Inverse folding.
């Protein structure tokens, strides 16, 4: 029997009212002093609460995990209180929201790190990437390699962030293991040249992923945990000699935890959907026992077809949600989508953030 994009989906004891997901979107609008969410963020998320599920912007698990100016954290009491404003506002609008837990690894700059120290990574290899330091987009700094004995601290930071997300009122958490950030850096053989138990073989390169998922599922029921990968994306200099094999192993290990969903960026992050030779999204999806969340350039027709045909259980939309807070209703009605203003995507205030009207508001204007 076919399923509609607009029908509910059950994940464990959580029922999502539809299959349209708001993808995690970095908007750089936390309070600069302390990286704290505030009332404007609460309004932004509440406006989009008709999504079946909201996934928060990437949220750093520690000060070390930060890679971009004005992004929120999940490690201080003030940040937890700020996020509570957000989750309360979303729940007041009958929404559901997961926190995306994030460590950027080498995708950072010394100026964003405590005392100007180097960012950390699996190996001391600079990324061919840039980051926003609060003034301009600037090349990322050369990282230092994490010592073996430090990795347990990183895992504990993820666990504490999961505890804080629960205290902040989230409905679950998503592990950010995509787009060239720390977990992705460990998985890929181009960025991971380690010779200890976290490098070399697929089992070793997946060890941090497995340890972090174990930590998250010690805090949350497994059905309230999702994981995001971008197997064939080269975002932030992410390269691997055999991504199909690497991510087949990683997804198989993730599936062992009974997670709520697998979230894949299909193709290049925010770019082309074409896959390299040997790439097979369907084969990767088949390795995972939970729900499958598809992402990257989906149109209304593509999303409806994917859910109807069973090739996806959920479809995540990114930029369309920026300028269409009522995206679910617009998709349902096949109504025109409002264009976004890229000049206001990153940083700023209400302009280009909470001032996009709904379809009803636009008609009444």
């Amino acid at each position: 029997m076919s399923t509609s994009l607009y029908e509910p989906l059950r994940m464990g004891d959580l029922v999502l009212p539809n299959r349209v997901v708001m993808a995690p979107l970095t908007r750089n609008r936390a309070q600069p002093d302390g990286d704290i969410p505030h009332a404007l963020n609460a309004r932004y998320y509440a406006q989009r609460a008709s999504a079946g599920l909201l996934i928060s912007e990437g949220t750093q698990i520690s000060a070390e995990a930060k890679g971009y100016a004005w992004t929120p954290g999940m490690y201080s009491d003030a940040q937890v209180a700020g996020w509570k404003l957000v989750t309360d506002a979303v729940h007041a609008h009958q929404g559901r929201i997961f926190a995306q837990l994030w460590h950027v690894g080498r995708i950072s700059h010394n100026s964003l790190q405590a005392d100007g120290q180097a960012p950390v990574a699996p190996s001391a290899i600079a990324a061919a990437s840039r980051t926003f330091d609060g003034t301009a987009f600037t090349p990322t700094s050369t990282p230092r390699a994490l010592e073996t004995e430090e990795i347990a601290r990183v895992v504990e930071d993820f666990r504490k962030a999961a505890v804080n997300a629960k205290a902040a009122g989230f409905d679950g958490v998503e592990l950010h293991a995509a787009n060239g950030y720390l977990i992705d850096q460990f998985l890929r053989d181009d960025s991971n040249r380690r010779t200890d138990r976290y490098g070399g073989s697929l089992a070793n390169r997946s060890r941090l992923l497995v340890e972090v998922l174990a930590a998250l599922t010690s805090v949350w029921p497994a059905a309230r945990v999702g994981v995001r990968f971008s197997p064939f994306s080269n975002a932030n200099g992410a390269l691997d000699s055999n991504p199909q094999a690497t991510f087949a192993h990683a997804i198989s290990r993730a599936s062992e935890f009974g997670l709520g969903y697998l979230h894949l960026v299909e193709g290049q992050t925010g770019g082309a959907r074409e896959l390299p030779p040997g790439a097979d999204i369907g084969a990767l999806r088949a390795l995972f026992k939970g729900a499958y969340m598809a992402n990257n350039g989906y149109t209304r027709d593509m999303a409806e077809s994917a859910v109807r045909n069973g090739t996806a259980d959920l479809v995540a939309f990114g930029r369309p949600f920026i300028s269409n807070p009522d995206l679910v209703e617009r998709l349902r009605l096949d109504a025109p989508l409002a264009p976004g203003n890229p000049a206001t995507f990153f940083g700023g205030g209400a302009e280009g953030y909470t001032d996009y009207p709904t379809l009803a508001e636009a008609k009444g204007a």
Remarks:
- DSSP finds twelve helices and 14 strands in the chain.
- The mean pLDDT is 97.
- The longest strand covers residues 53-60.
